[in-house]
Amino acid sequence: MSIFNEIFKTDGRLNRKRYLKYMIILAIVASISTFVLSSMATFFTGDPNSAPVMLITLAWSLIAGAGNVMLIIRRLHDLGKSGYFTLLVFVPVIGIIFSIALFFIPGQVGYNQYGPDPLEQ
Questions:
Q1: Could you read off the pLDDT of 81-112 as tens digits, one per residue?
Q2: Does any domain span residue 118?
Q3: pTM for the structure as a whole
Q4: Which one, out of 21, 27, 59, 108, has a CA that is 20 to 30 A from the CA of 67?
Q5: What is the C-alpha end-to-end distance of the chain, expressed in Å?
Q6: How many separate domains does the chain show?
Q7: Residue 56's domain spans which residues?
Q8: Burial label, 95 (beta-carbon count in 10 A; 0-12, 13-18, 19+)
Q9: Selection from 30, 31, 48 nearest residue 39 by Cα
Q10: Burial, 74: exposed, middle or buried (Cβ in 10 Å; 0-12, 13-18, 19+)?
Q11: How far is Cα 52 from Cα 99, in angstroms, rounded to an integer?
Q12: Residue 52 included in any domain
C-alpha cells in the first residue's frame, strides 16, 4: 500500500508518530508540486498572477487540504473521538491550539470503536 493510500483514507486509527510523518510528507509533496507547477505555468504565461497559475495553486491546495482533513479524522479516531471534531480546526485560535494538541495527546490504549490500537500492530 502506498503512502498516498495511507494519507487519503478515513477509516482506522493513526498514532502520533505516523500522524507527524504523514503530515510532513503531505506538506513537502504539496509545497514542491505546487511550486513546480506554478513556476511552469508562470513560465508559459509570463504572468505569475494568471488564471492557470491560480487554478493550479487552488487545485493543489484543495488536494492537500483534503489529505490534511483525512489525517486529522484518523488521528481523532485514535483518541476515540468522532471525525466531526475536525470542524474545530476551522475555528480561529481554537483551531491552532487543537491542531497542535493532536501531536501531543496520546491515543486510547487497546481496541476502540474505530479499530485496533495502532501501537499494538
A1: 999 999 999 999 999 999 999 999 999 999 99
A2: no
A3: 0.87
A4: 108
A5: 16
A6: 1
A7: 14-101
A8: middle
A9: 48
A10: buried
A11: 32
A12: yes
Radius of gyration of the chain (CA): 17
**What are the cell numbers at 1?**
500500500
**pLDDT for 47-68, tens place per residue?**
888 888 888 888 888 999 999 9
Position 75 scores a pLDDT of 95
CA distances from 13 to 5, 21, 61 (A): 14, 14, 24
Which of 16, 29, 41, 28 minimizes the C-alpha distance to 103? 16
Q: What is the DSSP string of 20-67?
A: HHHHHHHHHHHHHHHHHHHHHHHHHHS-TTSHHHHHHHHHHHHHHHHH
